[in-house]
Amino acid sequence: MVTQNSPAPRIDPLTLEVVELIGTVVARYHEEYEVAAGKHALTGAQARVLGLLSLEPMPMRRIAQKLKCEPSNVTGIVDRLEARGLVERRPDPADRRVKLAAPTEEGLRTARNLRESLDFAREPLAQLSRDERESLRGLLQRMLG
């Protein structure tokens, strides 16, 4: 138990190194993602929304939850994607009062091309065996709870 007068627990060097490596991986992924998005004349945020929607149409609120941002931000992003013909709004078949954002055919093509242009993670992961990738996946899932 840590009391007010006891020192904070010391983080071991291995944990610090792992945290630094995770941070480096995340930073490199975001850099490459921004560059890839730019090649499609998209911002990183627009590319992330388009990528989510390519998996399944969803309401703005759910997009915001997944991206951990405000729904009003998502509305602006979807507006810009819609103006480019990459996304459309349609009624939710389960509740017609709710609008879903959904990719158009062009949006699906763009999302696929964007995914295919992201080599940063794919190349280093290809150096790992299938068992190593499965172990890494399991460890990451465990870290995320």
From TrEMBL:
Keyword Nucleotidyltransferase: no
SMART domains in UniProt: HTH_MARR (SM00347)
Family matches, as SUPFAM superfamilies: Winged helix' DNA-binding domain
Keywords, in A-Z order: DNA-binding, Transcription, Transcription regulation
Pfam families: MarR_2 (PF12802)
A biological-process GO annotation: response to stress
PROSITE patterns per record: HTH_MARR_1, HTH_MARR_2
InterPro entries for the chain: HTH_MarR-typ (IPR000835), MarR/SlyA-like (IPR039422), Tscrpt_reg_MarR-type_CS (IPR023187), WH-like_DNA-bd_sf (IPR036388), WH_DNA-bd_sf (IPR036390)
GO MF term set: DNA binding; DNA-binding transcription factor activity
Residue ranges of every copy of the HTH marR-type domain listed in the record: 15-145
Record protein name field: MarR family transcriptional regulator
Record lineage: Bacteria, Bacillati, Actinomycetota, Actinomycetes, Kitasatosporales
